[in-house]
Input
Amino acid sequence: MGQMDGKVAIVTGSGRGIGKEIALRLVRDGASVVINDIDDAPAQETVAEIIKMGGKAVACNGDVAQPDFGDRIVKTAVDAFGDCHVVVNNAGYTWDSVIQKMSDEQWYAILDVHLTAPFRVLRAFQQHFRAAVEKERAEGKRVVRKVVNISSTSGVNGNAGQSNYAAGKAGIIGLTKTLAKEFGRYDVTVNAVAFGYIQTRLTKPLAQGEAGEIEVQGRTVKIGVQGGRIAAMNKMIPLGSGGLPEEAAGSVYLFCSPDSDYVSGQCLVVNGGL
Output
């Protein structure tokens, strides 16, 4: 028996990286999962991996920043598995620049993916769970649902060159705390996890192959971190290095599991003790 048996989870940006590890962690404890990626191939590979390990998963791919995405992914969960109990808003990317060089397009693109997209997903989620909770209570049942929003230490402390990303990640903390107050009467907990340096494709040294650029909505966006900065961060982190995606996933799982049923409105900073 797993702690997540019978639960249905949505994890955006789960075709690879931290999101994939979150999805795998939930599946290992019994959840059925809706996988999402902006690209079809990695999502389908993750779905196939979950099915091979005996789990249940379907894909709902595409850009989370599209206006209809929130309704679409919640509908996918309900159509495939009959309900939705957990939402993890994880999808995102960085598009860095100092403010005097940052365009309006660059500003809004990052706010759209990190703040507007989660807002739309959670609005759709509320429209589903409100009716579900009324039915459950009429049957004498209490079901605790979970929301975990992914923030960043850039949103907690700020970070030079990331005014757009930091603003979005600070905003998601405000959204988290507000929805904890709105959703509490429905037995829905809402928490955030703010990551420091986690070793993903977005934070690989710029000299390494796939780090360097990604394609988003027809744009080529440069990603990666200068190797010297990574070495400096590793020296500063008390645990000695940036976190692995599976380590990052463990902190998110805490807020998805029954162990946190009385924890809501919190932002957990996960940075190796920095």
Summary: The chain has eight helices and nine strands. The CA atoms of residues 97 and 103 lie 9 Å apart.
